[in-house]
Amino acid sequence: MNTPRSNDSEPVLREHVFDGIQEYDQKLPNWWLFTFYITIAWFVIHWLAYYQFNVGQTDEKRVDDAMAAIENNRLRQFESLDDKKLWEMSRDPKIVEAGRASFMMQGRCVTCHGEDLMAKKTHPENLTLVGQALADKEWQYGGNPSDVLKIVRKGSPDVTKGMPPWEPMLGPRGCVEVAAFIMSHHKEGEPFTISAPPAPAK
Amino acid sequence: MNRAQPNLASVTTINADGSRRFLHPADVQGRFTVLRRITALALLTGYVALPWIPVNGHPAVFLDVAQRRFHLFGLTLATQDLWLAFFLITGLGFSLFYITSFFGRVWCGWTCPYTVFLEHVYRRVERWIDGDAPARRKLEDAPWSATKISKRVLKHGFFLLISAIIAHVFSSYFVSLRQLYAWMHGPPSEHLFAFGVILSLTGSLYFAFSWFREQFCIILCPYGRLQSALTDDNTVNIGYDKTRGEPRGKAGTTDAGDCINCVRCVQVCPTGIDIRNGLQLECIGCAACVDACDTVMQKIGRKPGLVRYDSLNGLNGGPTRFIRGRTIGYSVMALIGLVVFAFSARSVKPMNVTATRMKGAPYFMADGSIRNQFNVQVINKNNAPARFLMELHDAPAVHFNLGTTAIEVPAMGQASPLAVLTLPQLDFHGPTTVTLVVREDKPGGAAIERKLEILGPDTRLQNHDYLSPDHYKK
Fold this sequence. Notes:
- With 202 residues, chain A is mostly helical.
- Helices cover 47% and strands 4% of the residues of chain A.
- Chain A has a two-stranded antiparallel ribbon. In chain A, strands 3-4 form a two-stranded parallel sheet.
- In chain A, helix 4 (93-104) crosses helix 7 (167-183).
- Chain A is elongated and about 100 Å long.
- Chain A starts with 11 loop residues before the first strand and ends in an 8-residue tail after the last strand.
- Chain B has 474 residues and is α+β, with helices and mostly antiparallel strands.
- In chain B, the strands form 5 sheets. In chain B, strands 8, 9, 10, 12, 14 and 15 form a 6-stranded antiparallel β-sheet that branches. A 4-stranded antiparallel β-sheet of chain B has the order 13-11-16-17, with no helix packed on it.
- Chain B is elongated, with a radius of gyration of 33 Å.
- The model of chain B has no long low-confidence stretch (mean pLDDT 88).
- Classes of the chains: A mainly alpha (202), B alpha+beta (474).
- Chains A and B meet through helix 1 of A and strand 9, strand 10, strand 13 and strand 15 of B.
């Protein structure tokens, strides 16, 4: 549409025509051109660093390492734990107090096991709490600290009972604290009986 | 020194060899310039002041990225409320479309932060140090001398200082002023990331406003291109009245049009175009040429408005239609976005509640009762600890935990209590829905309801008549 004017500053039209379309002979702004040169230079640096000398870590590797570190950390918290350590923890007031806070938080363990851990505290309408008594000497799945910790972490082996796994919610540390709090109601070496699994629900 | 006139085919600010041609827009006075300065002053004041004005205990605008709480004029949004941003952003977006369809690139010329900083801060400093347009041009072409060096050092020193100030104000929108102040007094090694952000922001601002300038608006800004697509023949833009102006002639001649070809409109243009060539992509609608032309017209005793705000139809002598499909469509869309945002923002609660059935079996049976267990998650969006009450409604026969349950949630933290619903088996007559209400433990506190479905064994399986073979013989 633009007919070339006799202005010096008007750019020159190139000779070729395609479908009636012509183009001006103009240069790209230099700063724009430089951005291309910068990307070319960056490509060389990147190629050398990542593909030749392995200077940088790939994102994939970084994520994998971070995930492995988290998993290692999680495993480490449990592998050094045995009954002896857990009994020790159950006598550590700081750990027990942290466990008590988790246990007693409204809507947590206390909901089913009661404030006295006996599941006997009754509802105003005489409803027995649904959990197991934890402060008596009768256990269903073993009374050693590691047995208790396992139930806290993984939930009841009997899925009809409704004790859920708590590790996803409390985290490894929280589970250990709660187990220590429960064991603080017991003495190391005290005898316990293992009750027969209850009859299946009628 | 050949300073050729702008043309339609190439960008004035780029020389034929691709090098940059710096513009030195001339001073301009007039009503639009005054109005634009007032607008810019108001916007700059708002920009600096907003983080300082407390509303409901938070700065008026505080996008707290560390805590992920977003405070907007007293409204506090958490990450969970992000969906609201959809309506806010589309509403604002369509509002801009709407304004653009009426008044063209009024955003670019009057309110865009880039223009406000460039025209009303950096160029003012440049004008103050280097003098008016001819003086600036002379200084640019002059060989390096003590005066030129000292002026350049002074100017770029100021530019860097202003860039640093703008960067700090910008950061104060994302970290608290107190935190920013503490960082400013501590060694950078203690907050390398923040220091790096400020440094790169300062650098970018300095580069943009001391060197890059109008190149951004002409070549990089996608919004400017988008705005050009939103205008039509009825959109009011800045235009030159060809019918009145052409043919151009000297002042005093009678057979020529009103334009005396004084090129004042070209001299004042911050993007270096000749508005008389028509609407061009470089035009940011700043109205400097309108003021420049009106001043000249007044001086030679002619009617102002040779270059004016008008639509293409208006410039061709026709009427401007404001009500048309495009403007109606954009206003409807802008209204939908903003109205939905306004309504949904009112429904934002200071907490978030989710209730999901606990992992494991869907229900448990013991002692003649049916038990359903739910994980409730209560997120406290307040920055103070809060106490919530959990209650069960519409469920007379259901025993709920120990009755009403109180939950203490730390400031901006979350708690995940259980909801254990127990129902005597005799009272269970098929799945029922009950309502869990979590409310703030204070008068007039907000409440959130969640439906919980109580499941149990199929009641038909306990019906001996139903199970007896006789039933099937009926």
